[in-house]
Amino acid sequence: MEDTSMLQGSQGLFAQLSFTIYPNGLSEDRLRQIEHDIADANGTIIPFKAPKGRIEKLEEINYIVSETADFPDYYRALDLMMHVVKPAWVDASLQAMKPKNPRTYSPDPALFMNDVVICCGDIPTGDKEAIEGGVLAMGGQIAPSLSKQVTHLIALDLSDHRCQLAISKRLQLVIVLPHWFDDCLKVGRRISERPYTLPDPEILIAEAGANPIPPTRTSQQIRDATTPDPFNNPVPPAPAAHLEAPRAIKAFDSKSVKLGDDLGISSKLRGIIAGMIKAGGGNVTSSIETADMYVCNYRDGADYVKASQARKDVGNLGWLYYLVTHGVWTNPMQRMMHYPRPRDGIPGFEKYKVSISSYTGEARVYLENLVKASGAEFTKTFKQDNTHLIAAHKNSEKCEAATEWSVNIVNHLWLEDSYAKCREMPLTENRYTYFPPRTNLGEVLGQTEVDRDATEKIFFPKLPKPAKTVKAAMQTNGVPASSLVTRVTKPRASSPPAEKAKRTKSTGNLQTPVAPRHLDGKENQTPGSRGAKDRALSRLHNAATDIAEFEKEMKRKGGVIHGGRRRTEDEVEDRTKAKGGRDSVSSKRSIDAVDEDEDTEDELAEVPAKNKRAKKDKLTPIKFRMLVSKVERWTNNSEKESKDKARLRELGLFISDDFKKVDLVCAPHPVRTKKFIAAMACAPTLVSTTYLDYALKNNKLPPAEKHLLEARDFEQANNFRLSEALERAKQNKHRLLKGWTIFCTEKVAGGFDTYKDIIEANGGKCSQWRGRTTTVTASKRTLNSSDQEVSQNQTADEGDVLYLISDADKKDFNNWTKFRELAKKHDMIPRIVKTEWLLSVAMAQYVHWDPKWELSEEVVKAAK
Fold first, then answer.
1. How many CA atoms lie within 13 A of 145 on its CB side?
2. Range of the domain at 682
3. pLDDT in tens, 779-824
4. d(CA 768, CA 753)
5. How far apart, in Å, do the first and last CA atoms of the chain sit?
6. CATH number of residue 700's parent domain
7. Residue 296: how many other CB atoms lie within 10 Å
8. Beta strands in 675-716, from DSSP E residues, in sequence order
9. pTM
């Protein structure tokens, strides 16, 4: 007899709810099935009418069922707080006999875990809670036990009883290390599981270096979307009718299209395009008021502003060709190369020279065009005067050369995010300089969409301003006034000018990542409750001990780093000495270039080692690593900077921005910069700029003691001697704040990351304080009397004081109250301090206290 209990239980489940189903990506049978299931549960189906591709009475809909977020009403639906769910939501709700959480079935591309159902094996509790919280925050689902719905089983090895059960039951799932999730969260994308898959995960195999990192596979997101100017491509033929999805949103059906004057196309080509649009059921118009679509090259001009403000479809010729090819509507903002370009590129990018590494085919074409559209100079050959190298992974000779030349090595996410927001993103954001081991990031190329909010604020704001105000606003926002044609804009009072990202040296060290900072109000932010995200961040922070153990294991001899254990600079020195001063990376690169031909790197890899060594000059062993701060020698002269650094490297002096490993710090005088203060933990020798002057003039390194930094005024003002601080730093060995957890408000002057780096350089941990007492923990410090060297510099540490670094701002009063509650909850003494406290402790290299550093409501009110 047929079991009808579930059917009876689901009847009426969707009563008084209305649904519309978008057909794109769905077969006719699947459409009928969804409609039937909703109707059986007493739901109301409001038919989707394809001609315009929009719902006339959107406000009357409760749920939109769609496989994709790529439909005209998507963002309008979000503004109306409407649920947009995948068809699987209907199935899951009926099976559970209750509506499931719509967010875990959202087609939002920012929720990159939305197709993932995880089950955790026998892993540490902290890791498990962090992974589960992060998966939920990114749109995935959690299964407490194994089932057929599980897609990923998280385990440390196959001896886990759940792994054995999955194997015996032949479940269709992937068994991966927890590090896969960590790396996905670190870059904000779902990366390949291959290097993390048990039983033999590549990231743990010492010999993995013998296996090449997989080549870039063309991402679906950039297919037919690699160039904004497809002038060299013939107009594509119309798609065959049988290839179109049933009731699909036709690209041109009943729509009017206006072709912009800035397209620069011939009358013959314009006629051909008009014919294609008419063949698709549309027409070409000369009026922007009657147009449904506007096609142009640049984000300016009266028609662009009018069309954008009216929420019409605005795209470029590449987008138009895509519509002709596929015959189905797509959002032009979904793909970078489908939306008009900023005429003058991204503010600040005009001074950059960018090259790329390890990308081929369409991926290479896409990145080349994106670099040019951003306003930077693209170079096919990688030279020492390049400012950035965009790499899919760091296992290449170009990356080795970039490291030696102190050229920024970034992944493509930095370029895509900068272009999406039309402002330069800071390289201090870890996700832009992180390369997951054994992974080709080209697999996630093109998944970033144009930021509609940022684009609106800069290029077509709702409220026009007078011309004078417009020009001032353009300058305020870092947009060249010269780019203003007929574009109108308004000042962003709350947005500071884009900060110039400092050129930092990217390291190749493998790290097990923790939750990225960008989850807090930045990229890939998702709607809904942030509680799961905050808990995930806190738990990942608390799991730092386990993560550190993994890092320690990965750094042992034989570990794997980017396709093989890359030699550290110390090992290069040792090997160089053993082999008479020769190595694979030579100072000859100071004058030679690394070719940028698509197959160059592969060809180089096949050259016999003997022949390669014959082409290399001797590389002087590194004698000192120097960090420079506030040195004006190279201000606005990158060419001179590159040449001088190459000469110094030949003398054995390596200029580095890595403040965690440095022998010399060079500055005109003691300065309160992040690099200078954090580097104090290394107990470096402090030298003045005359050291560099002498070295470059005489072509040899002088004795450091003859060029020591003059610090008399600084020492008098701060009541301690730098020489004594450096002696204490030698004793501390980066452990001054070991065992400390120091909290810091999110918008503190100087930026949270500044104080985080200083605290971590001294062995402590820094957590961002958002006033949520339930998502963080605090514990008393154990005073380590056994370590005499360090403890003598911690005599002022009571052990039970909890510190919060903040600004003297009334807006933080509520945060202070919550912080005191946290301290009381853990039987600790709250102490809210100015940034001056940390800077003084880190500079002097001993824990001390001055009441003038303490903040309170009374102090702030009195100051006002």
1. 1
2. 624-710
3. 777 766 556 667 778 877 878 899 999 999 888 898 899 999 988 8
4. 9
5. 80
6. 3.40.50.10190
7. 22
8. 685-687
9. 0.54
